Amino acid sequence: MRPSRRQAQPVVRRWQPGRTSATSLAVALSAGAYAAQLIVETFFAGQPAHSILREWLALDNTVIQTGQYWKFLSFGLLHADPIHLVVNLLLLFLAGRELEPIVGPRHFTAIYAIGNILGGLTHWTVMPWQPLVGVSAGVAAVIVAYTTILPELEVTFHLLFVLPMRVRAKHLAWGLFAVAGVWWWTDTATEVGPAGMITGAIFGWAYVKQLGYGNPLAIQRYIFDRRQRAARLARMSPDQFVTVEIDPILEKISQHGVSSLTRAERKILELGRGKLSARPPQK
Predict the structure, then answer these.
(1) What residues have CB less than 8 Å from 70, skipping those under 6 apart?
(2) What is the three-class DSSP state of 209?
(3) What is the pLDDT of residues 90-123, one digit of tens each?
(4) Cα 258 to Cα 270: distance, rounded to the nearest angstrom
(5) Model-level pTM?
C-alpha cells in the first residue's frame, strides 16, 4: 500500500531516527509469538499436547466457566496459519507506517490494541462456539483509521500479490467492511473473527474522528452551520437584524399569512423581539 506517484505526499511526522516504531514492535511481537507457536505445534505434532497453546490462549466460550480471563488478551498471540499471519502483518506494517507518524505511537498503540480487544469481545459475544486467534480486529482498526485520515489518497496495491490496482484509501475501508460482512454472513473464516474485524474497524474510525481527523459527518456540519448562524445573528445590530431577517418574514406573512411560517422563522421573530426590546430608546 503506497501513494500514487501522481499524487503529492502528505506532510506527516516521520519516525524518529534511532527509535523503534510501535508498528515495528507490534509486527515483531506477532511474528515472534507465531514462531514460538510453530515450534511448539511442530514439536508436539501428533501428540495430545499439540493443541495446548490453543486450549490455553485462544479465546473461546470456556473463558467464564474456567476463569481463564487472560484469553481476552492472549488470543492475539496466536494465528490460524502462516497465511493468516502474513496477511495480518503485511497490512499492519503498510498501514501502520503511514498512520503512526500522523497520530503518534501512543494513539497508534491504543487503536491497535483496544481495537483488537474490542473485536475479541464482539466475537466472543456473537460467535462463542468458534475459538478466536490473531490480531485481525486490531489490523482492521489501523487500516480504517488510516483511510479515515487520508480518505482521498490514491494508493496502489497488488491484487493476489500480482495485479497492480490503484484505488482511493476510503475504498479500501469499504472493501474491508464488505469482506468481513460476507465472511460473517457465510460463516467463513470464523477463526479469524469477521465480526470482530467489523467492530475493530468501527473503533478505528471513531478513535481518529474524536482526534479531529477525517471529513466531518453530516450532523457535525449541521451543528457547525447552526452555531455559525447563531453567532452571526448575535453580532447583528437591531437595525441590521430587522432588515436582513425580519423584513422578509413580514413580507411572507403579508402574502401567505402567519400560518405559512416555518418553525425556524417563528424563532427568528422571537429573537428579533428580544433584540428590539434590548435596543436603547431613541432620543
Answers:
(1) none
(2) helix
(3) 999 989 999 999 999 999 999 999 999 999 999 9
(4) 14
(5) 0.72
